[in-house]
Amino acid sequence: MTHIFAGAYFCKKLIIVQDPRPIVLYMQSFLHTALLRDSGYFHIWMSAVEGRSFFDNDQAKAFFITLLQDNLSPRARLQELSLQPIGFAHAIDLLAFSLMERGVHLLIYTKNKKSIEELGQVLLLSYLSYLQGQPGLSKLPFHSLFIFDGLAGRHEALYVSRDIHLLHEDWRGDRYSSIGFYLDDRRGDWMRPYRITTLFNNVPRRYVQLLKSQKTQPDVIFEYLET
Q1: Reduced to 3 states, what is the DSSP secondary structure of residue 78?
Q2: In 3-state terms, what secondary structure has residue 88?
């Protein structure tokens, strides 16, 4: 199956494994000429195709968060003493995230677009490797789609953060989004939301006001991808 998106800057298809059919990662970027000034803000989508679930349970979501932590934390792994940067912390700031049954949303800042594609490959391949190791799995459950969309700037990124947090029915208490970094005292060196939170002076109630100002329909982005 091939997914074509109008106005795309590039599309890359990567054949990963045979088990018994090819598992394909479709990588797509929407970088329109209006955005070539390169604000550095990007919205990433990862999902299964053909209406399949990306996450079957909370354990899989927890593993994926571990992947984000391992790849975006600036701390070097003790067993890997190296003078070279490890992971993507030197290139990518993770501003917000949302893990839903049907896929993953990431809001990031970077000046290195190549690192977006590299991060996507690492996350998807690591997640597929995790799925292969699950007991009772006879074949990989889905093809994977990876897309990133350039944003106009920090204020558009603020509204994207709102939209991806509101995808969750219990958006205030869901453990599998970054809402706790915005409203509570949740912390982690792999998350750097300050580029967004400084827009509302790091005052949580102001972000709550933004969240309540305009509800969005859950899964609207995924519906768009599948049409």
Answers
A1: coil
A2: coil
| Contact present, 210 and 199 (Cβ < 8 Å) | no
Strand partners, 103: 47, 100
- Helix axis angle, 113-132 relative to 58-72, nearest 10°? 140
Residue 219 CB contacts under 8 Å (≥ 6 apart), including other chains:
100, 102, 167
Query: Is pLDDT at 112 greater than 50 in this prediction?
Result: yes
Over residues 159-206, the pLDDT tens digits come to 999 999 999 999 999 999 999 999 998 989 999 999 999 999 999 999
CA distance 64 to 56: 12
Q: What is the 3-state secondary structure (H, E, C) of 147-159?
A: EEEECCCHHHHHH
The domains found in the chain, sorted by start residue, are 10-225 (3.30.70.1290)
DSSP state of 98: E
Residues whose CB is less than 8 angstroms from the CB of residue 203 and which lie 6 or more positions away in sequence, other chains included: none
pTM beyond 0.90: the answer is: no
